[in-house]
Amino acid sequence: MKTDVKILAIESSCDETAAAVVENGRRVLSNIISSQIAIHTVYGGVVPEIASRKHLENIDEVIRRALKEADCGFEELDAIAVTYGPGLVGALLVGVAEAKALAYALDKPLIGVHHMEGHIAANYISSPDWEPPFLCLVVSGGHTHLAIVEDYGVNRILGQTKDDAAGEAFDKVARAIGLGYPGGPKIQKAAEAGNPAAIHFPRPCLEEEGYDFSFSGLKSAVLNYLNQQEMKNESVSQADVAASFQQAVVDVLTAKTMQAAKHFHIRKIAVAGGVSANAALRKAMKEACEKRGYALSIPDLVLCTDNAAMIGSAAYSLFRRGEFADLSLNAIPNLTLGVKS
To answer: Is pLDDT above 90 for 266?
Structure first.
């Protein structure tokens, strides 16, 4: 099999139109991202129809820029990879259709990639020597999973959210306290001026057996606090609410991860997904792992949020195994990750 494998990867699962050229799963030759945050901020969240339309407008230019930055022509590519789920169905379809057209026209293998597999694979780029098996906390806007990555693309799910994902809770609380969208970065910024111990919010699921998460109750606790303060005609410190809420989320995510690592005797921990960009979570995970002597991998910030480099990395192991898709590949908005243990 060819030694150096170059994969053009496409990502369009939500509101970033992205393309990248990745060599051998770990060397990023280009990673172009066209963000729609400014557009959706006006609406307080992602509007699926607008996201799909912007993907259509941007995708050809993003691919052109990715190839130019990588100094790579279509003929030098070994495969075309694309996110086919989970995500917004209209947004996914734009990327899938583009990838299928390119694979057909260029007579290149087509590789369908699970979006969350991409987030996990971001660690292989930021930490080139990182290899399975390891325990991975995957936290994003729509997903919260704790999984044992047994091999490349082989995940055993230990736990997942029962309701709101961590990132979803960030967005809802940010909206409730008047910070707006996107919630994660705005909560983090506001929390810098707040006291994380000012308000005691619950730590859901910490006393329960197993490794599932639940953030709906925590979100409700914040809303109840805000309502109580309003009824008592007392002021609310936006910074203290943000800091206290953020600390509750970080405590739960970190504690559950450490519990699982101890139970399954795993000494390598990775974090992935958009919420892994949160500074408080990164700090807490680093301190917890250092205390226990665990190895820790967290992707560089640019690789935490949606991007195509991570899709190209995840696609490499599928390429090596010959796991290609045909032109019937379709978007699967509710695609699940791994097998629940």
So the answer is: yes
